[in-house]
């Protein structure tokens, strides 16, 4: 007889406002203990020195955590110009300094170069791996590893506050964008160097920081209140088109069978799939692949082992 997993079977998403100084994994484990949840995961790390939106997944929601990895993200960052540091942020040692003499007009002109598709070289102080070892471990030893340039997209780059030597920017960008590198590259273009003073993630896809719960507040909540602030697993899937199945197709789909629908897609597309129970209650089945001729194949399914369905 198999050993029962400790904790409660909790399915849902917690939008956490992670504080500065805490790693993403530490935040996850703390929230997991507070919920006494069996299974937990996050949707991609946020640097300990950064604060802001960290979606945490529990139970069946962990099956869809990867769907946010490719999503656009939004950051609010304050960049200090005139000082370049060894880490690209305020924790590092100053390795170059120059008086920032740019005007607002000059700054706007330089900023224009960083909108749209740009090329970045990932920083040494990052979690990217070389032969299985994170680059930051090489960096801490003073070693420099060659990194391949990568294309990223800066869909919006707006000035929130202009008070040189500090400028606060709101950045909307594609996956894989390094905001530290963006700040350093802007400083390089201005000829004075720069590093990030603060970094806060404010959105991932259609998830926003305004919906997030402060960790201290979450800790002070009762068990019922903590459960109440969890969002349903399909909150991670809102960027996918919905497909609804009738009762017969629901049973087939849950058994791993392909079903034919009235829906169509120009090319094979990932969709979120809803079924209907005998009591006519609609519920999430999981994620499927929809072809141009209306055939829907299961991809990742919700498990209803502990449910009545």
Automatic annotation (TrEMBL):
Catalysed reaction equations from the record: uridine(55) in tRNA = pseudouridine(55) in tRNA
Residues in Pseudouridine synthase II N-terminal domain copies: 32-179
Domain of life: Bacteria
GO MF annotations, alphabetized: RNA binding; tRNA pseudouridine(55) synthase activity
Swiss-Prot/TrEMBL GO biological process terms: mRNA pseudouridine synthesis; tRNA pseudouridine synthesis
Stretches assigned to the tRNA pseudouridylate synthase B C-terminal domain: 180-237
Active site: 47 (nucleophile)
Enzyme type, top EC level: isomerase
EC number(s) reported in the record: 5.4.99.25
Keywords: Isomerase, tRNA processing
Annotated Pfam families: TruB-C_2, TruB_C_2, TruB_N
Start and end residues of each tRNA pseudouridine synthase II TruB subfamily 1 C-terminal domain: 242-302
Family of the protein in this entry: Belongs to the pseudouridine synthase TruB family. Type 1 subfamily.
Known function: Responsible for synthesis of pseudouridine from uracil-55 in the psi GC loop of transfer RNAs.
UniProt xrefs under NCBIfam families: TruB
Protein name per Swiss-Prot or TrEMBL: tRNA pseudouridine synthase B
Organism: Parasutterella excrementihominis YIT 11859
């Amino acid at each position: 007889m198999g050993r029962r997993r400790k904790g409660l079977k909790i399915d849902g998403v917690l939008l956490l406002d992670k504080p500065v100084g805490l790693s993403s994994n530490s935040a996850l484990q703390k929230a997991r203990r507070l919920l006494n949840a069996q299974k937990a995961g996050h949707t991609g790390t946020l640097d300990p020195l950064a604060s802001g939106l960290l979606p945490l997944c529990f139970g069946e929601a962990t099956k869809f955590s990867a769907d946010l990895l490719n999503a656009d993200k939004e950051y609010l960052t304050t960049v200090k110009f005139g000082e370049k540091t060894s880490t690209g942020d305020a924790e590092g040692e100053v390795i170059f300094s120059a008086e920032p003499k740019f005007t607002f007009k000059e700054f706007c002109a330089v900023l224009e170069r960083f909108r749209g598709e740009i090329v970045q070289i990932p920083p040494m102080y990052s979690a990217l791996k070389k032969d299985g070892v994170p680059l930051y471990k090489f960096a801490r030893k003073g070693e420099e590893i060659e990194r391949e340039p990568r294309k990223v997209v800066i869909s919006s780059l707006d000035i929130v506050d202009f008070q040189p030597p500090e400028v606060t920017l709101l950045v909307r960008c594609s996956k894989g964008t390094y905001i530290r590198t963006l700040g350093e590259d802007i400083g390089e273009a201005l000829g004075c160097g720069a590093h990030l003073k603060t970094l806060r993630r404010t959105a991932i896809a259609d998830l926003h920081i305004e919906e997030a719960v402060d960790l201290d507040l979450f800790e002070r909540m009762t068990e019922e209140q903590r459960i109440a602030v969890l969002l349903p697993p399909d909150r991670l899937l809102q960027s996918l088109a919905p497909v609804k199945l009738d009762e017969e197709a629901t049973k087939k789909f849950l058994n791993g069978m392909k079903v034919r629908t009235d829906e169509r897609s120009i090319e094979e597309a990932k969709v979120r799939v809803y079924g209907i129970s005998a009591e006519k209650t609609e519920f999430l089945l999981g994620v499927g692949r929809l072809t141009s001729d209306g055939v829907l194949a299961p991809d990742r399914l919700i498990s209803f082992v502990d449910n009545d369905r």
